[in-house]
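Sample entry (406 residues):
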Amino acid sequence: MELKKKEGYKGYQAYSYLEAGKDYPDLEWADWDWAGRHVLELSDEQEAMVKEILEKYPYVSVHDHPTFFPKTMSTARDINDAMRAGRQFCSYEALAYSNLDCVFDNMMDGVNIISSPNGWKWIDIIHDLGMRLCDIAHQDFLVHAKTVDDIFAAKKAGKIAWVGVIEGAACLENEEDRIDILYGLGVRQLGVTYSEACALGSGIKEERDGGLTAFGKKCVERMNKVGMLLDVSHCGSQTAYDAVTYSKMPIIASHMGAKGIWNSKRMASDELIQAIAKKGGVVGIEAAPHTTMSPAAGTHTLDTVMEHFEYVKNMVGIDHVTFGPDTLYGDHVGVHHAFAATLSTKATQAAAGSTFTEQPYIKYLENPTEASWNIVRWLVKHGYTEEEIAKVIGGNAIRVLREVWK
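Predicted structure, serialized as tokens:
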């Protein structure tokens, strides 16, 4: 595979309009390809098919974190100090090497500890969002996408559409009007809960799931009205099911897998997958370390991720599945270790009756760039048609966005 940068990238680096060490702490970030560059081998004919598909159809990641993490994470303090600085650095150059035409950026999510070790405070969410929007305003490679047309325009220009996402709604507290504020600031997707419970419902941490609350129903209604896509990826099973059935619009599980393969709380039950599809929504297949595994493999690989993809596809059809890799630039396993409690990695990884071998990174899926190379290559290698690939790398997500976004 020939490695080329997108035409629209002109060399911008994050916050280059400021002076490191003077305007912000000069921290050392990981190289985007710290674990190497891994590319699935294809025949010349398959390479040509990949090239043609990527030229013709938009490639959308419905869940990623395209930012750098610290080079050293030997202690929790290393990453804590970086996160408290409140300034995430987007990896523009690495994205320029990707196949992506649109990335749903989930910001700092559970590591947003700017003012509190417990995270998710409204002021910190706004800080994180505003800081990133300021950086984006100083460059012209990432296009802040607020409509589907923005995605196609970015692709045509050799750029990438950037969609702002808040992964969990704890920051709303008891104020549904904050949904309008987030929408006004350009956020277009919101998680009903993160792993812990909030005023809307229960997350996957909870032993008991009371389902969508009365306030949660009001928030679902408001999201439907303003045109905010709602995500149930971190919800408890009942809360997720309630949100899907209560919503009048299609919804997304932006980064999940199938409980039928890996029986952890982080995966989606068959009933939830079917409910999402029945409502017209999509399930984005997760690839973050040690999530979409299978008992047969005993670890996490590209093939186990695609096993989850095919399970969902075979159950509800090719029109209701896509990819939300949930990857980042840096030592993702190290992030999970440092924030094990906050990110609920135990609940994410544990599966009843199964054990697994931890990997230092997931080959072929280590970051948003590598995942964008290899998912489409795997699909071509395994005989998927052009039409099928076009749907799962972007077409299905765009169909939902056309219906939901206003």
